[in-house]
Amino acid sequence: MRVETIVVPDPGPGEALVKVQACGVCHTDLHYKQGGINDDFPFLLGHEAAGVVEAVGEGVTEIAPGDFVILNWRAVCGQCRACLRGRPQYCFATHNARQKMTLADGGRELTPALGIGAFAEKTLVAAGQCTKVDPAVSPAVAGLLGCGVMAGIGAAINTGGVGRGDSVAVIGCGGVGDAAIVGARLAGAARIIAVDIDGRKLEKAREMGATHTVNSRETDPVAAVRELTGGFGADVVIEAVGRPETYEQAFYARDLAGTVVLVGVPTPEMKLELPLLDVFGRGGALKSSWYGDCLPSRDFPMLVDLHLQGRIDLGAFVTETIGLDDVEKAFARMHEGDVLRSVVLL
């Protein structure tokens, strides 16, 4: 990671220039940094961001200069086959700014992480990537809805369809897993079982709303989840790690006709092998959750309002606030499991 001077163009048609106030350090940024997503270097990292619209381009009417917004990576197109079927949360043609930000030294084009690139004082995005929310919320908290927290809450509520009285197991209790716990509690789950190999993370999961914890370094997680659910397995199991081993645990820890939700992001080389008869015989649903299957225009304002009402504590996800020069250290702390989220304040 290097801090560089960049050139940010004035917004063109359909674009917005945003003055970034805060941006979370997400594991997806680490994937970019390590070349795990693509090799379109150099990357402008950062995507869990909130800030104030500074200028808009021609044809932009949904936002205006001065609006406080959360940036998102699902700018709904309105025209693809998913949108035309009334499922914009699955939009297959989300768009980004057409113009490129560049390095001031040499003019090389930058690839913004998830089309956002918000580890910067200002960034250029498609206007549809800006979701206006109540400015009473702290930017450090609001920005986290732009990726990890929304992914976890949405995995429980939108993808998993957790309902009142359900049993839910969450495997992997980092930021996304803890957000899934918050979402399950918000949806009225009766039993929320947190599974992880780190006792510190399990303690935090209890603070976030888990009713039971399982240390899978010490205990077979499948047997433990079954024991805690009357021998049946959980109604919904959310896998927030993104590894074949933990996915297999999720598959066998669910009840018959239960739901498995994969929200952890695997790497390209990972493979999964399951007996096809078990897939058929156990019934239910195996789902992947993209961005918590969220619709930013619907979900971001709602969650901000719930936070401001005191019904969910988004601030609990912020472990530390840092400066732009500290992002490399934040990646190291993330790797060591010391933080839920480090948030860059600009």
UniProtKB/TrEMBL annotation:
Zinc keyword on record: yes
UniProt xrefs under Pfam families: ADH_N, ADH_zinc_N
Keywords for this protein: Metal-binding, Oxidoreductase, Zinc
Recorded GO MF terms: oxidoreductase activity; zinc ion binding
Entry keyword Metal-binding: yes
Cofactor section: Zn(2+)
Domain Enoyl reductase (ER): start-end pairs: 1-344
InterPro entries hit by this protein: ADH-like_C, ADH-like_N, ADH_Zn_CS, ER, GroES-like_sf, MycoS_dep_FDH, NAD(P)-bd_dom_sf
SUPFAM superfamilies with a match to the protein in the record: GroES-like (SSF50129), NAD(P)-binding Rossmann-fold domains (SSF51735)
NCBIfam families the UniProt entry points to: mycoS_dep_FDH
Family of this protein: Belongs to the zinc-containing alcohol dehydrogenase family.
Annotated protein name in UniProt: Oxidoreductase
Annotated source species: Streptomyces mashuensis
